[in-house]
Amino acid sequence: MSKKQFKAESKRMLDLMINSIYTNREIFLREIISNASDAIDKRYYEEAKSGKTGLSRENFEIRIEPNKDARTLTISDNGIGMSAEELEENLGIIAKSGSLGFKAENEEAAKDTDIIGQFGVGFYSAFMVAKHIEVTSRKLGEEQAHVWISDGADGYSVEDGSRDEVGTTVQLTLRDDTEDDKYNEFLEEYRLRSLVTKYSDYIRYPIVMNVEKSKMKEASEEEKAKEDYQPEYETYREDERLNSMVPIWKKKKSEITQEEYNEFYKSKFFDWNDPLKVIHTNVEGVISYDALLFIPSQVPFNYYTKDFKKGLQLYSSGVMIMDHCEDLLPDYFSFVKGLVDSPDLSLNISREMLQQDRQLKAIAQRLEKKISSTLLEMQEKDRESYDKMFEAFGMQLKYGIYDQYGVHKDKLKDFIEFYSSTTDELATFKEYVSRMRDDQKYIYYATGESKEKIAKMPQMDLFKEKGYEVLYCTDEIDEFALKILQNYDDKEFKSISDKDLGFEMSDEEKKAQEEKQEEAKDVLSAVKEALGDKVASVILSTRLKDHPVCFASGDGLSLEMEKVLKAQAEITGNKEVGAIKADKILELNGDHPFFAALKAAVDSDNKEKVSDYAQLLYDQALIIEGLPIDDPVAFSNRICNLMK
Question: By the 8 A CB rule, do 100 and 246 touch?
Fold first, then answer.
């Protein structure tokens, strides 16, 4: 039969598919296997409909045969096969899908069979690796087989062929190797095995390949008894099923043990540790899907780096479509691992992306709710596991509150935990509020490098005295997240370094404080004059008890935020960000012995000593806050001068 040209602007389409649509050439095997599975589905359905009994899925198979000498890769099935006309229709018109036509004509079949292939397009991915393709097929109920032959965009021919049994054989003659492209990798047994495991492990029919194995040669007892005996091995070949066929997520939960879940997770997602929690859910309705999700017990080594790829594996009827589908998880749940399998996805011609994201968004929304409810249930019923999860991934949840100007803050606020001044256990905002004193107006927090350092901050003196609980914020993102949250249960968040802590004072206390401020007015003015623009103001402290000095924050940027922005500027080189400063209010303890010495220097008009004292106090406050001293050498000299 003479060569025919492809229809539908085939040369341009074929070139587009090979060079543009398919970004990963290894998926050609997935496409051909999916088509073979479809063909078996159709035969299984047709024969069952005609009354043939005793059918078993084990009666069907998909066979892979690599031939290194001939540089051919053959994939055959004993499915329904195609007539000459169907070869013409399905392979002569690019983007024609016999599977879709079958599914449309047989609604009942669609319920019982997994029609996953879109033969007319997926098939052509084979031209990414093959320079010549022959498809030999014999249709169910026909004696004559036919063969479709093509070298690519130049066209194709359909001729009479020979095949002993019903089914289809696709034989690919691989392209020649180049310096950059090694097509012969697709003739290696280990490579083919790995591709089946990766993409087609859950095809419902056996995928078989005759593989090379080795075994120890039998030896006599006399030979084994010799001192120099070394066992000898011999190679042999046998058929091996490459796919597991039944995905664990399709089984009933009652039939799966925790150990099976754990082993699946560790082997599938390359983790040494058992997951903290398994979420196995099945949804049927407008959008049907199975999901098997895992909460890891430890942070992946690259989780907080740009190299980490978030997303769930996406399957369509057991065939993997994407390894990392980012759209299925919000960023704040990016630590969740797992997969989703749905027969309802609208796949585009490459089966790599989606024509529309309506179904994907619907699944993602339901998964988000399921993950949220599971985490809150863990928090209530398995606090130890929840706290372990939060220690590992709490920073991501806190970042989720801050991200996009707090659009998700109400969803996430109940997940957040902090250590505090009154407990060694992590505490939620709800738990903190339940423990608040009757006279307490705010949820108080403190920022610092560690719990131990925060506990020693001078600003903590007053809170210890009053018995108020303080949340310890030790991550850089903490205060940014709390600023976005603003409040919880109508209780505003307040830093212990804020200038106004909201403590009520009696009239007598107010009067006494005003008198002390008036008495110290000259000293405070002298210190402010000595420090200039380094501080916004200098005041007499009401919060300090044992310590001499501390900083309070004015409105807007806090001292901790200044540190974070300065660190970011050093990394990114953004000088504008690094130049942003917090308003520093220097608070002095008027009851501390140093204050008398400072007052004496002011009263004697010793401006040099006042300047030294003021700078020392300022540097002390910087050190307490973990901020760098402007001039360490000058600081050291001032200390030495005091020691004379």
Answer: no
